Amino acid sequence: MPLDTSIKKVLVIGSGPIVIGQAAEFDYAGAQACRILKEAGVNVVLCNSNPATIMTDQAMADEIYLEPLTVETIKRIILKERPDSILAGLGGQTGLTLAMQLDKEGFLQAHNVRLLGTDAKAISRAEDRELFKEAMAEIGQPVIASDIAETVEEALAVADRIGYPVIVRPAFTLGGAGGGAAKNEAELRTIAQTGLDASPITQVLVEKAIFGWKEIEFETMRDSVGNVIAVCSMENLDPVGVHTGDSIVVAPTQTLADKEFQMLRSASLDIITHLGIVGGCNCQLALNPDTFEYAVIEVNPRVSRSSALASKATGYPIAKITTKIALGYTLDEIKNDITGKTCACFEPTLDYIVVKMPKWPFDKFADASRTLGTQMKATGEVMSIGPSFEMALMKAVRGAEIGMDSLNRKPDPDDDAPIWERLRRVDDHRLFTVFEALKSGVSVDEIFAITRIDRWFLSKLKGMAQFELDLAKEGLTAEHYEQGKKLGYPDQTLLRLSGAAELPAEAKHAVYKMVDTCGAEFDAETPYFYSTFDRFCESRTFPRSGKPVIMVLGSGPIRIGQGIEFDYSSVHC
């Protein structure tokens, strides 16, 4: 279907100030939405109280309200501007919750304002924990043993029935806010009350903890006529129990057999079809590593943090296409910007590996608990791309601004606990503790038994640990240099780890490869690039405009003490 010409004026709700559990991903999505709406000739009214976002610039919307994101404010703007539509799925949980409150009160219907994209009924079925459970039962999708509670006493009764430990998941919150795990009644009393206070509808889901299962995500897309694709699969390095925003994430999935992958992909597409999602949607699933048993954790019926990651990892602009679908277009009518030839119905092909690494604020909050759980603590993240997991991981560690160029963390003089004790901790040092254990001779199976990190990841880390041991023992030979560069080690790091004074061969220089959505099946017009070590550089074949070239340096991951003001200034530059 072409553009819906009845859409003349759209109210876009932003996401307000940067909070822990939400970085710049909704500014990214909202700015994309405003751009597409303006291109379509639609009058754009924007409400967002964050001055540092590119979204609240005059060029992005026709009318901009720097106002508090509250139901009362949105009502006043609707009465003044009289929009015919509202777009809420690109303003994170804030925008979604506000739109749902207005719909529930009947305000949108009374003033002839329609919700674009996924409708209110579908959003409720995805976000309301009880309705979601019922929807999954209707199509035979397994969920974890759980029940709804609206008081602390109800939560305790649910836990008694399903057994401890349990996870508390509040309804309609972002980044696991208000949630947590409880091993006994005393812990549950505190966590349940916190969760009920955090939920705008005073509702929590109390579910059986399945710690140790793999956590898999599918970023999916569906249009109004039912075309549906899986844009990207992602796998958490940490098993279930650590919020995906606090976990190292790898795309595409690495440890699934084809049968497991197809099973979870089909489940994700069936779920968003049954819920009636229109636009981008994130499906989170848990998989028992020892069987084919799986369970649906939750669905985000909106553009999320994972959507921004998946967009950059694949070259498929999820927020942009979600907005086009909201305007009435179907996936087969939307052109792929990178190739200029294919359409948005094509599932992207990845011929590389992407690693996302969280950025935590513990350097600013030295006394804060570093323990990671179901409530997100990261403020931002970095993404890296490489032809192998090892190279992508090494790049991510260097990009995270933690002062490290390898997986060797400096010993903490205040922490002399033995390695076995530290392996049991789930904190931001976990990756480096595992690497230290592997270098000291602890086996992959022993580490797996404690951490439940998949053996595939542990084996990759084991290979890197063995390489470093060989390097220290045998020195930096030409073969070691070649191997080290393929694993992602910088020259200075190889010299330091080996004790060598100079490189054994001519220094290797990076070449650049393309992220083109199609594994080079079609020529790319506007690709992303990533560096690797190879003989052929794909950026050299890219047509040059002949204009002078300027490099703009960005500011890296969102961290405490920095919001998105530098993203704002870089975009303007």
Protein described:
This protein is an alpha+beta fold. Among the domains are: about 110 residues, Rossmann fold; about 60 residues, 2-Layer Sandwich (Dna Ligase, domain 1); about 140 residues, ATP-grasp fold, B domain (D-amino Acid Aminotransferase, Chain A, domain 1, 2-Layer Sandwich). The protein is about 35% helix and about 15% strand. It is built from 19 helices and 18 strands. The strands form four sheets. The chain has a seven-stranded antiparallel beta sheet with strand order 14-13-10-11-12-15-16, with helices on both faces. Strands 3-2-1-4-5 form a five-stranded parallel beta sheet, sandwiched between helices. Strands 6-9-7-8 form a four-stranded antiparallel beta sheet, with helices on one face. A hairpin with a 6-residue loop joins strand 13 and strand 14. The longest helix has 20 residues. The model has no long low-confidence stretch (mean pLDDT about 90).
